[in-house]
Fold this protein.
Amino acid sequence: MSLADFFHPGSVAVVGASRQKGKVGYEIVASLQAGGFAGDIYPVNPHAEEVEGLRCYPSLEAIGRAPDLAVVVVPAGAVADVLRQCARVGTRQAIVISSGFKEAGEAGRRLEEQIARIARDAGIRMIGPNCLGIMSPADKLNASFGGPLPAAGAVGYFSQSGSLLAAIVDLARSTGLGFSRLISIGNKADVGELEVLKAFGQDARTRVIAGYLETISDGDAFIREAERIGHDKPILLMKAGETPAGARAASSHTGRLLDGGRRAYDVVFERAGIIRCQSIKAQFDYARAFASQPLPGGPGVVVICNTGGLGIMAADAAEREGLKLAELGEPTRSRLRELLPAAANVNNPVDVLGDALADRFEAALDAALGDEAVHAALVLLTPHAMTETDATARAVVGVARRRAEKPVLACFLGASRVEGAVAVLRAADVPVYDTPEAAIATLKALSDYARWRSRPKRVVKLFPVNRRKVEKVIARHLRQRQPEIGETEAKEVLDAYGFVTPRGMVATSGEQAAAFAEQIGYPVVLKIWSPDIVHKAEVGGVRAGLTSGQEVTDAFDLMMYRVPRKRPDAHILGVLVEEMCRKGREVILGMHRDASYGPLMMFGTGGVLVEVLRDVAFYLAPLTAGEAREMLASTRTWQMLQGAGGQEGVDIDAVAEALQRLSQLATEFPQIREMDINPFVVGPPGATPIAVDARITVAEEK
Amino acid sequence: MSLADFFHPGSVAVVGASRQKGKVGYEIVASLQAGGFAGDIYPVNPHAEEVEGLRCYPSLEAIGRAPDLAVVVVPAGAVADVLRQCARVGTRQAIVISSGFKEAGEAGRRLEEQIARIARDAGIRMIGPNCLGIMSPADKLNASFGGPLPAAGAVGYFSQSGSLLAAIVDLARSTGLGFSRLISIGNKADVGELEVLKAFGQDARTRVIAGYLETISDGDAFIREAERIGHDKPILLMKAGETPAGARAASSHTGRLLDGGRRAYDVVFERAGIIRCQSIKAQFDYARAFASQPLPGGPGVVVICNTGGLGIMAADAAEREGLKLAELGEPTRSRLRELLPAAANVNNPVDVLGDALADRFEAALDAALGDEAVHAALVLLTPHAMTETDATARAVVGVARRRAEKPVLACFLGASRVEGAVAVLRAADVPVYDTPEAAIATLKALSDYARWRSRPKRVVKLFPVNRRKVEKVIARHLRQRQPEIGETEAKEVLDAYGFVTPRGMVATSGEQAAAFAEQIGYPVVLKIWSPDIVHKAEVGGVRAGLTSGQEVTDAFDLMMYRVPRKRPDAHILGVLVEEMCRKGREVILGMHRDASYGPLMMFGTGGVLVEVLRDVAFYLAPLTAGEAREMLASTRTWQMLQGAGGQEGVDIDAVAEALQRLSQLATEFPQIREMDINPFVVGPPGATPIAVDARITVAEEK
């Protein structure tokens, strides 16, 4: 039994139907009737004879046949019994509208577990409880109390908030946005966002998926499905609450740089191609375009306007959003010169001037869309004295139809003066926006999605590594309940995955330290050696740039004197004498495992100052070579990494490979919760980067 | 004669009046009549007897008395004659609607100069040409073809685009925003934005000033007026085209970091307290709140909602905008616990739950506004089944009136379901927004403006300096037509303003260089010495960290061999042997003089890499001590400058003082176009910062 069956039942029972207007039990029956549902409707209520002209039954059994769908509006305590009735008569689909469950405290939570169990045991699929119901405009099915049906269309919507869904339906009716299905998923005791996503993925009526979520139950599976389904259908999500489970508490740089998890959703949504919407308005704006327009074949946008200043405002908005206006080719510009008056601007934004009639808009739009550098168009109209708003709208529709392979958006500024024109555009499926900025943001969303969809197939390279060695280190730490893997062992782990670490030896006396330094060669760095001290620099446990035996013994003795005073609890094993890395740039590689979504890889610049500079990039593991490079390229310091300002660049490929190796380590060992390689010193092309310091935290797999 | 007289003329002549509907000459007469203008209207047109029931005159003279205001709609070529008629009869105010002037090319530009001259000579104040006219709803004056009058209200609006103004009036009518005056300034041949700003500043009806500008004619004067008037009345500006005059071409780091001038408007607007609007929608959103609400007394915002998830979305938006939600005091929370059901959230955002009736909203809003940590409130409602939308609106209005000292904004989500409530709120001047995000952005604008208004009085410190020395250097460069002042002389200039520069001497042989190095003390740096080479590092003309005589002579010879091969044009005077600065952080101080607004001061981090890191702050000179500190504090590296990550901080006060000294230099010498001090090396508190390298560009004052 699939979720799809919910949308075209042959018959619906409303259990808890009421004759009293305003009661939910009445609204459901009235909505089913008003929506034009063609099947049988059976009100069920032992205290009524009829509801809205329909015979009312004392129980589900009394109907004498099994309704395909039961909409349940009885008090919370009576829901279990209704579901048992469903089981007995053979009704296998229920929408539980009733509230008083998990959202109402502990007793409600137990009640919810009980009804979920009953439904599961009886093979009943249940939407809710604590929901608004469902709508399917094309099937004339309105099994909800969310008001009249909106127009039928291509957008499938699911919402974790019933009242937001009601507001959305209300807004949609006023703006004409059409929906395939709407589902209020409520407390998600059985049917959740993952199943809805899959169902929308298979549903032929749904071409755009949109939703509002407060929690995501199985993040990993949701993202995997979204990535699969998103390839065919754009997914537009509003997500309230920015913090995924488990991302708040973090001791590593990497974890802290996720901003208490605030960035984690951006990271995982980006990977899955989910278009994140920051407001309902943005979601509507985007949905309208995705439902009606082709995807742009490239980044080039043309703006056609009859007020130069507003064209410039659109261009400014494009620049802020990171969209570039197309540079029109000379053939197009010379064609525009022929078509437009001499004072018109034939560069992008194209200004057809304030006295333009419909024909001038038409000619300019057509010519611009014929340019191969143009992949999308925005027509921007303000009503001047002679402007033919309606005729211009019809002209835009005509060109948009002829040039159907490229998206065309419009912004006709005003209210009553452009009302007719807006109606013409909407009826013809040309999306209209209330400001140039909203239209530009929508073009950005179209363009981002198109780029995501045409990304190369993800191929993750597997490097030959020494897994056994890592298994041993992790197993020992878990056995001894030491979640922190300190520098030496962390470097062993990295070594097993092909990282190069500096040469070093642990000395227990100043003389020994000096002898080791001679062996390694100056300059050397000294680091306090203790399983209990993770942030060595903060306790004075690091001295770099030592160039003689005298300096080494001095530094050794000073450290042995000072560190125990700052950290009397720490068990100090000695001092590591380590090769100083040849010069290079300090970067950080890291990983933080999100409880739901898995390993989030980080690349950042600035070494120890990474948390101050905050110039970091995150991506979900496992990484492809392209993704690793993109992480580098998305930092502010990308130019500097490539070489700029007279300074030499670094070996980009080597850093990208290191990120992939670390991603492999994170993927192969789910026990690793967090890792920081900091600093990771990278030299010029050809030089081997060095993992100078590292830490790893492990925990039993859940 | 002041601009204010335009708004209540006793009589208006429409020169070029027409009987033909759709013609501008008809629309003006009809608009004056429909608006309810109480004075006399004189249509003027030699080819008509009457227009819309009014007697039509063949000329202004034929009227027999001087109309107070002439609205001119004749063809461009005939405008001069009409203005001469005005002069003869004694009409001293004219609105020239006619187009065909500057916007139409060279001939039009000459025509515009001609009519401006005629008006000036005759003492006629002229609005336009190429404009839409003016409106003053409270005076029932509609001398425009921008459609029917909008509601009377507190917002004065001026626009450089007539058609945008028409769209704005149209939008305002549909949303009920009220205006005091609307002026289409057109080509600004006489009356421009500066005069309108002053007039709005004095106009008792206007409490909020809003406008749309494409160009600002006298930027410096405009900003000074805005800063003065803005103290009493908020100024909301949309500015199309981001590049002020002269900011595009820049050779200094400072100039280039203005992003081709893109940031200059932000800098000057911020200084003047102008609220910059990125879209018409944002401008409307802000105007509504500024016109009706008190300013918040602090940063604390409370959100009251009946859907938890949307409260969280508002909180997320607040965090993105840099607004913090208020932490409610325990007395408030315990009061809320009494008032609300147990399941409600008494922390901010306060969730009154989906079944809340009007009373619960009322009680929660009242309690929250009583908290001293709360300075503004946002009420967020989604219509649940039992929600009393209208009654809730009335309750919100009641509390807002009782707590009139704090701003209250609302967002009631939906369309038809909240229509009545929205009308109630609008009628009572509680601003309503279409999304939580729009309301939060508005609260941010209110809060920024309130903070700007309560900023301390600007006191600019004057340091004792040696102006004569600088005058000489600049005069010599101007006389010899050498705009670039190279390192040595730039350092002399800085020295005269109290900067410390490294010790150094110019050597002409390797032996001499080594001798100088001995004198200065190792390590030293060598720099090629040529008036023709500005970017020394790029031609291999800098060698740092030299620690022996041998290294110095080698570096000298190498430079003398290599640099002439790279720059055969350069006249090389020798090599500068300079003291190496003790360690410190490299920052950059700079100035770029904007052609309109004057000196924009810059502080940035990263030394030579400043253009890569782009971590810079700009502010308009002259700087106060507070502003100089704020510039430092607004960079990403602020924490690092103060000391973070185990590294020592720098002497913040010393850098702030250096910025003020540089600001004084820029203010006292308008001939200086650009300056970079880069790197400026700053040590820990107490250490003197050193201007290691510097360059200055001068030009004759305009």
User: Anything to note?
Assistant: The first strand of chain B starts at residue 11 and ends at 15.
